[in-house]
Design brief:
9 strands; alpha+beta; about 25% helix; globular; about 425 residues; binds protoporphyrin IX containing FE; homodimer; 9-stranded antiparallel beta sheet
Chain lengths: ~425, ~425
């Protein structure tokens, strides 16, 4: 028996009776009820407070002015979860976010949510990420419009007026199975299992307090060039996706981060997340000429440059006309249309590929479109500009939707959403 | 305009008329019909023969004694596709595999299936893997029992007697949506988009000749230790999965590779693939004590060592008893039971996590179990040994199934499945 095994057995002996009392389990190894889990975990292994461990490799910081997973350089994987709230009071909801805070720090430190010290209860952490480093895990928490309609929580007076379900857009075919949610957790990492593990453990620790409404896993394939520099990933239409995005601090403040006075005070330094599960009809796209594909975006496929320009990051000039007086960018192109309104957004999307649709054999694949903006209206303005004109409409169908107010960043000693609960 | 853009426009001018004739498209950019696609691709950009480019980074070889993706060190992602055959003759099926051969080589070289030289037809390659290296892509082709029952193909006399749908096992809850198939393509890579891209392009080039029956994406999170060595990945129950597997050449010949005279001659050096889509009931598992979890396998969670041993790779001794005469390995444990029969298999599994099951909110997650063996009976013997006794049955449900005869490796100048067509 190794030292570590010995330790486990020692612990068992010492605390077995206490465990059985605690869990109400009549015999060793008996499963405990769902609702008792959070308490057991917290009592036996989850710390109350944790700091970012900056010695960890591939580590994103939890604490800061803004939440992680928004300005964070996009990772290769996401596991996005939309949750329903089961708690019946504001105090319980507050407790939930307090409990989640050190867990999220621990996960982002590449550690389990807590140490399992005893074999007679379920492991504190589900364990599938043991031995894998932090993988740049980021965890972003948000609250949806329905949370504020929930009377027993008494939060309705704190709903920002801009936080509403998105309007119905002409070609939407939203499915209940991918729409809405009281809370969201966006876990992004450079490993699918690490992202999944984060959501699974947060939800599990909150069993009886939240339930899953829908989830979607997604990925980005990030090319690295000869100089070792990351390039813009391509979506499943093979076009570079994410080129035109706010990046400077000024642009982020203009577009993404809620400034003082722009929303409810508890949202200052936060941002609004819009998620759309957009099916891409790959079979139709794949029968379309390269010319028509490029006309769809107004960009070249091979290097992502805008029509009439040479390089991916050359400025788009949507007003430019050729010698015949025609716009250089096709007037039905996605980029031309997206630029007909002033609003801007920060896109942080992932591809998904979830098998095939049962009755048709078509790929259930597309874009898990995620954008951040200081007001969901920015998204709505652009989506309306794309409207019925966007040539891309022939090739896509919006199947899911959500909008969430993502809290500002968390200060050490504080907890996720504190400003909301103290408002 | 850059040099490369100029080239594209030159090409367009030169061959536009030829294109329009070829595709029957009346106007530039008009989509062409599904059935015409393969021919167009082949005529304009797919080579007839290609060699492994050993100068490419992260490259698995296509040609060899055995197909890739079997003995190949397991990658982090799989996209598994089961296909139905639409062709009506052996000659057409043979043409299909001939067409796929150089495409598979090109993909495994980290290249598109062919060069797109003209904008007035659909791109030869769908392009989403441009700029990403080979990512250790392996592509494994197999044929299912139903292919030999298809009268128009005239292959029935070539069916190996061991190639049959698996028998119904007591606790099976197989769904048609994840079961069977005439052909399979297993694409594995260290990138989800590269794996998906491979299947998408092979299937697209074969449009009108095959259709997709079902697909499943999967992943492995492979820990790397301090010495930079890869460790055994953990499944979603957090246990190291793949520890006990044939590895030596002798073991591979005994367990995995069909030897001369052991099956139909066309299968010599090939192997049989069994795939099972096994849902893992994570919610139930996560309420189970660590002790009971470890008893389920007869191995320790933290390091994967078998009960009574110290290290992951220590030999399992299923006959050993303790001082009271009880087996050290629980008699209902997965490992104990799997060892009650002589048969062995090589497991090469991936986890999957495909959202939640609509009406219950339970994770649609589990193991895309894939095993290779020289005879599917080896799998059946073990599955029968697990039978109704396996403690793990409480936590899993088999939802999908397939069995495929994977051809031997391909010699340069030959093509996938040649031995079958020449038999
Ligand atoms: C499957 C759906 C979509 C695909 C495949 C897609 C793809 C693209 C591509 C390839 C670009 C050009 C490269 C870049 O700047 O990133 C782009 C730009 C853009 N897209 Fe989308 N997009 C999709 C949906 C949407 C939606 C729903 C919105 C918002 C309503 C949107 C807003 C934008 C904006 C604002 C730009 C930048 C335009 C500019 O300022 O140049 N996209 N998209
Ligand atoms: C979700 C389903 C399954 C899970 C989670 C699972 C997990 C495991 C684990 C953790 C081990 C021990 C570590 C190792 O040697 O890799 C193992 C061993 C093994 N499993 Fe499974 N397994 C599953 C399904 C199956 C099925 C369907 C079969 C075949 C019918 C199978 C056959 C084996 C064999 C042969 C061994 C090695 C036993 C030995 O010789 O020590 N497993 N499995």
């Amino acid at each position: 028996m190794t030292e570590s095994n010995k330790e486990t057995f020692m612990d068992k002996k010492l605390s077995r009776r206490r465990m059985l009392k605690m869990t109400g389990a009549g015999a060793a190894g008996v499963a405990i009820g769902a609702s008792g889990l959070g308490g057991v975990l917290k009592a036996f292994g989850v710390p109350d407070f944790l700091e970012d461990d900056t010695s960890v490799e591939n580590k994103v910081n939890f604490y800061g002015k803004h939440q992680s997973g928004i300005a964070t350089e996009v990772q290769t994987h996401v596991y996005f979860a939309s949750l329903s709230v089961l708690v019946k009071s504001k105090a319980e909801l507050q407790e939930l976010f307090k409990m989640w805070t050190p867990m999220a720090v621990s996960l982002m430190n590449g550690k389990p949510i807590g140490e399992t010290k005893n074999s007679y209860v379920p492991p504190v952490d589900t364990g599938e990420a043991i031995g894998v480093d932090a993988k740049n895990l980021s965890i972003t928490f948000g609250v949806g419009p329905s949370l504020f309609k929930n009377k027993s929580l008494g939060l309705s007076h704190l709903k920002p007026k801009e936080l509403n379900d998105l309007p119905h857009f002409p070609k939407d075919q939203l499915e209940e199975a991918y729409t809405g949610g009281d809370l969201c957790i966006q876990a992004c990492a450079d490993d699918p299992q690490v992202a999944f593990h984060a959501v699974r453990n947060l939800v599990r620790a909150a069993s009886g307090k939240v339930s899953i409404k829908w989830t979607q896993a997604g990925f980005n394939s990030i090319p690295v060039n000869k100089e070792g520099k990351r390039e813009t990933p391509r979506n499943l239409f093979a076009f570079k996706d994410g080129t035109e995005n706010p990046r400077s601090e000024k642009a982020m403040n203009d577009v993404v981060w809620v400034q003082k006075g722009e929303s409810k005070p508890w949202m200052t330094n936060g941002s609004y997340l819009v998620v759309r599960r957009i099916q891409m009809h790959l079979e139709t796209w794949d029968r379309t000429s390269l010319q028509a594909q490029e006309d769809t975006f107004g960009r070249y496929r091979h290097n992502g440059a805008p029509y009439g320009k040479e390089n991916e990051f050359d400025a788009v000039d949507e007003d430019r006309k050729d010698e015949n007086g025609n716009y250089v960018l096709p007037e039905t192109s996605h980029v031309f249309l997206a630029r007909q309104v002033k609003a801007r957004i920060m896109r942080r999307a992932f591809s998904y590929s979830s098998g095939v649709i049962d009755h048709t054999g078509a790929y259930d694949a597309g874009l898990l479109f995620i954008s951040f903006q200081k007001n969901p209206q920015q998204f709505t303005d652009i989506q309306n500009a794309l409207g019925r004109l966007d040539k891309m409409n022939e090739y896509i169908t919006h199947r899911g939707s959500g909008v969430f107010a993502c809290f500002p960043g968390i200060k050490k000693g504080s907890y996720i959403g504190e400003a909301l609960f103290n408002a």
